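Before relying on records like the one below, remember that each one covers exactly one chain. Contacts with other chains, cofactors or solvent are not represented anywhere in the record.
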Amino acid sequence: MNQLVSIIIPVYNAEKFIEKTIDSVRKQTYTNWELLLVEDSSTDRTLEVMTKLAEELKDDRIIITRQDGDNGAAGARNKGLELAKGRFVTYLDADDLWVPDKLEKELYFLEKLQKKDPEAGFVFSGYEFADENAVGTGKVVHVPKTLNLKQALGNTTIFTSTVLLDTEKIDKDLMRMPYIKSEDTATWWQILKTGKLAYGLDENLVLYRRAGKSLSSNKIEALRRIWNLYRKVAELSVTASCYYFVLWAVRAVKRRT
């Protein structure tokens, strides 16, 4: 399989991290990719850092663009999706890192899957928590072999920076992220609602840098986001929402301890 992969990175105030993130893409053993860096009205030197780096690298696979308006990460990812030319679409957060064979392993995994299930088009992998210096903590999140919608409601282990999607199997309209909080989880659910399965590759292929992502002040807001997803996106009853909310909470704690 030597198809073009479109890598979409929404970039906001990431001047401290973006160079290493780009470097982790350029070190991929699979080289047929385009990197769409979508700058999202940063207030620091992010755009300057990216522009200077692109000029130094002279790598025409790296494309810098800016999104119009203030639509956050969802808008930036959707802008990247509009520009994407690859058969495969994958996402990476601006402060996370890929291991060198992330793309190669996921593409090979998907190729094998499609021999058994021709409609397979959604894969994700395990990942490791890292500190703000991108040093792995040793805490690795393992993933199940498959997730359907019902399973995904109680197991939000699909991490955005691990996902790979095949546009020949999944319509791009389903990949467009809604302008709500936890837009990535809502997107996986809207894909799974069609009856698709998400296939898990239980290998650690991503470093999830936790700097600024897990502050205690954000915990209540995170709970609100998940509850709203159950009620407004999944359209579950209060009883069903409570059931899946408890499952989510238990698994979320296990992933982080």
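The chain has one domain: 5-256.
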